[in-house]
Every structure is written in structure tokens, then in C-alpha cells.
Design brief:
This protein is of the alpha+beta class and 215 residues long. Helices cover 30% and strands 24% of the residues. The protein has six helices and nine strands, in the order ββαββαβααβββααβ. The strands form two sheets. The protein has a five-stranded mixed sheet with strand order 1-8-9-7-6. A four-stranded antiparallel sheet has the order 3-4-2-5, covered by helices on one side.
Amino acid sequence: MKTLVVWLAVVCPILATVQRYDGYQVYEVTAKTIPQMKALMELAQLESFDFWTRISLNASTDIMAAPDQVNQLLDYLSKYQIEFRTKINNVQELIDRQEDTPKLGPHSPRYNMTWDNYYRHEDIVEFAYELAATYPNLVSVSSAGQSYEGREMVLMKISSGGDGTKNAIFVDAGIHAREWIAPATVTYIIRELVENYEAHPQYIDDVDWFFMPLI
């Protein structure tokens, strides 16, 4: 059986210990010369600041600084005449805004996901089991074990049946920290395949799908 492995990466949107980011700021900086780019690379190697994006020439790079590191960062950027602008004044305010946004909407009465927000581990697991309960002829869920922090890693199989000779596609998400879009993308694909099966039955009739929406 041929297997196409699709790698999607993102953080599991819940942490064992919640850390607050009050006063943390994010700066968008741009290295326009080779020396400026090297200066940013040297800064990244110190691991004192949190680089959200990769360093490239003539491309923006986002750097997060703790409140007591802001002046140090700005002095460093000024020293090398690196252009910058404040992108986020307070990271915690954005986190609070995300947490305060109502997540239960009219899209589905069965599970707490609308794809208007990023969702926690328990919401995604609930989505998996609810979909399997609603569409038992297409969806089955099993446990692939537990994460390092003890959370269940669900494996979803989407199939219309057959003799086991169909090609299979395996899709996972939630490998890399802070890349939250991958579990959102994977669960959206799952929903589209299952709930809109009649619009494109060949996607399931011709292929067996295996999904791990969170690693």
C-alpha cells in the first residue's frame, strides 16, 4: 500500500503551565545589508530574544522582547542601524483577546469548533470523537498514545471501506511550537471530507485517510 505522508506543523494550542506575556513587545526589523543580517544572526544565537520568523536579507523578521529587554534590543538595532517598528505593543493583550472570544457558534451543534479561532487540545479531541459518533460509516478514532505532557494523541481514520488495497494518505499536525495554523487546517480538511462527502465522494472512496490533528 502506497502512503503519501503530508507533514504539517503546529503547536498544540495549550501548555501545561500557562505563562503570561504582560508587557512583552514584538518588533518587526529589516536587515538591508549583509552586516545587518549577520548582526541579527549573532543576536539570535545569544537566545536572549525570541525570534518569531527567520532572518533573511531585505525581509522582515519579528522579534519578541520581554519588558526588561526592550531597551537592550532597541540599542542593539540602533547600533547597527537596523530599521524596526513596533508590531505588537503587548503580547498578553492579544492572548487575552483570543481567550475571551466566544468559540461556540452556529456552524455545528455537535462540537465546539467554528474555525474562527484557534482551539485547545480538548476541543480538537472532542471534535474527533463527535465526528466519529455522527459518521460511524466514515470515521473511526483510536488512541495513538500520549504526548510527553500526558495528553491523548488521537488517530482518525476516514474511509468508506474496501478490501484494504486503496492508497492511503497520512496527515499530521501540531509538531512545531506556535505554528497554530496546522491543526486548524487539518481539522478543516477533516470536516470538509466528512461533512461534505457527497460533494466529492471520490476523495474518500478512492483513498483511505489517516489524520493525527495533534502530535
